[in-house]
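Lab notebook: predicted structure, single chain.

Context: the supervisor wants predicted structures on file for every construct in the current expression panel, including those that have not yet been purified. This is the next one on the list. No modifications to the sequence; it matches the entry in the shared construct table.
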Amino acid sequence: GNRRPAYLEIGFGNGETLAALAERHPERNYLGIEVHRPGVGHLLLALDKRGLANVRILRQDAVEVLERGLPAASLAGVYLLFPDPWPKRKHHKRRILNPGFVRLLARVVRPGGLFHAATDWEPYAEQMLEVMSGAGDLFENMAGPGAFAPRPEDRPLTKFELRGKRLGHAVRDLVFRRREGPI
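Prediction complete. Output recorded below exactly as produced.
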């Protein structure tokens, strides 16, 4: 019902990051997608407690939403923070960030919009960087070719990030900008 830029967080977990972003940026709209019912409930409680009205939630598969649930070029940005790394080789096919997913992102992120991912799992970070770099006609790496971005000050720390740091894992951020042009 307004013209504020819209941002999507895919797999918001318990919603702490999404609630913090929405509170920091009342000039933005946010959409959160999560399949875990308790996480949805936790975020709803946090939004109510903070009095935030700039967040909408979908309990649905993110790929379905990107394919059919959002208009083309409708998002100013997408967050994919600490997705399941599926560390076993036989499960790598389950990782959400793959070339097909990137094409779906390119469809819904407007030119100039951002895709921001972060992980503390080094092999997944390398794969994410490879996949996003392979879509150079669609997205530009804001940190430069082959580089990870410094953690943007705007990104709240997540419980997964803090856990990873306690375990000695380095956190890697990727920030890519949607290029102009067709998909």
